[in-house]
């Protein structure tokens, strides 16, 4: 089953749409659902042109395709438990949060909180992701617990904050404070980043580019060979919080 | 003229010695009267349990400390989210919810009067502002004096009159209700990185001891004729073996007041610990309850712990720091210049944890071992032991041995060797529960005279009708029904107006703030005292003229004027 949602022309395209119902398991049962546009409840069909092709016996046979300007559509794939969502353009905040299974692929850019508190499944962004990609949420101690997040462009600040399980791969650069409060899982950054992994207690973070503002509370333990064959400096920390996380870095410059 | 008639109410009103009589209650303009005209609105209580509106004599719902709990626990706001509807504001939060959430939830449980347990005088405005956003309950604020520089200096100088003058001036300046001492001297010591272990330790830099502070404040309280007694959070909260300090403190308290207790000791569960460390930690509820039983001048509240998530917050800064070192989670600490301080951390009380299981048992033991229900109030020190929404479960635990046994079977297996709870067969009756949740609390606070906690002629028409018929339910067996009934009134009536029905909030409401204004007579105005003014100018970061809370901060104000007798 393939459900295509094409965004209609909107009078004000900046008003966010709360679209937690755009999830394969809900839409396979019918597309007559409502979402909020700002504080107004709307039928999904009022905002999107909807086409449904084929049938599905289980959620895994469902693909939802989002087309048009979906950069203000929030919470797509929230609590998703199977199937596939393909976003042809950009997607709004909180895409894939709490997702447990299935696949989300965003061909454009993803806004903030992309795949936050992910529990399982695969979430891919071909463009850039905003701040708090694959992170936890305000006040919570555990962030992403499982699954895989892959960003082919850059990620903003606080990528993989509170990571406690699963795998995060950023092919481009990260902003400030990637992997802070990490307590499990693996984070791999192919590009550069600043001040990573403060207060980390467990897990593994690998930076194949340059770390700026490296914080001093990591203990240098030696060198290893990285996944690309080059040498990486190995650290353990954050010792300020009795942490035993692993941090592997190609180049670094200490915080001044 | 606004008239209401509640018919067929099964009334328990301990203050007026009514224990289960079916009667009608007539209300005119917010007060209970003899009868009303034929045009009065009628509510049929249908024989359901009808009590005076609930009174909570120790809770933390308003003020800087509570609000900081909100700041630092955004995850708490993920629970309890309800959209705005009708007269209701949007709400969110569980252990530190929004003010409206507190107000609605208390109202749905039949509570109409609350005492905020700790207000720092310097930060009183914030408390009063949040009071005005707690519209369905009348509010009072206990005012913190545990580390007040002016008072400690006066005590050291042996100047009791000056102690009384400072208390009187401060209470009316900040529109407070009673005197609260939190770990007296301890929070001030904490400002210098130290703490106080018990009543005989000296407060650094001031040369006074906690017991001197407690006794001087008791004398000041009685001289000022305050409605409520001194309200004490003992020293050494939360530490193994602290029961000795608690008993030692109680034994020093004289009996000075005929109408009420001379000391209200709060959240005594946290102060009834035996053992010498966490490994030997055990209950000492028995000696504490024994002391209370022998000293009618003492009233306590339980400070019951219930399992689950909550937030602890207290003016006891050093204690919160110790908790932080135990849990390594987030922590906040706050100093209030010249007066007090506070600390906050989130906690999770677990059944699988031996210490937490023992704490849970101790609160219940205190309530069951204190013979006279007028001496032990039902509280959780909300939200420290648990959010107040757990009260119905606590009521059921106290009324049913069967329920206690069922719960006891789920706690840490070693708990049985540390507590006496399984041996206690007492099951409280409806009248005793009514005492511990409203009548006793109103009496302890000294507000029965303004019509709180009872349903006699002239009383405030604050009434809770619970959907339960006493004759048809055996609380010892059907404890689920008790929990359900106390969780949601059929009607909560505030000042003669139904404010909730079957859990639905009906009106926006408007609270009254009850405060005390002691008149001390000429020659006793401390704000004219040159030394006091000098201290104020030198150390406070605000001017004395900006210190008092202006009338505008109180929407409706009920000033209780007292006449000091020096
Ligand atoms: Zn308290």
Keywords, please?
heterodimer; A: 256 residues; mainly beta; 14-stranded mixed β-sheet; four-stranded mixed β-sheet; B: 566 residues; alpha/beta; TIM Barrel; nine-stranded mixed β-sheet; eight-stranded parallel β-sheet; 24 strands; globular; binds zinc ion
Can you offer a commentary on this structure?
- The complex is a heterodimer of chains A (256) and B (566).
- By secondary structure, chain A is mainly beta.
- Chain A has one domain.
- Chain A has helices spanning 24-27, 44-47; strands spanning 2-7, 17-18, 34-37, 40-43, 48-53, 63-67, 73-74, 81-87, 101-106, 122-125, 148-151, 167-170, 183-189, 193-194, 202-214, 218-225, 231-237, 245-254.
- The model of chain A has no long low-confidence stretch (mean pLDDT 96).
- In chain B, strands 1, 2, 3, 4, 5, 19, 20, 21 and 22 form a 9-stranded mixed sheet that branches. Chain B has an 8-stranded parallel sheet with strand order 6-7-8-9-10-11-14-18.
- Chain B is globular, with a radius of gyration of 22 Å.
- Chain B is an alpha/beta fold and 566 residues long.
- Chain B has a domain at 54-448: Alpha-Beta Barrel (TIM Barrel), CATH 3.20.20.
- Classes of the chains: A mainly beta (256), B alpha/beta (566).
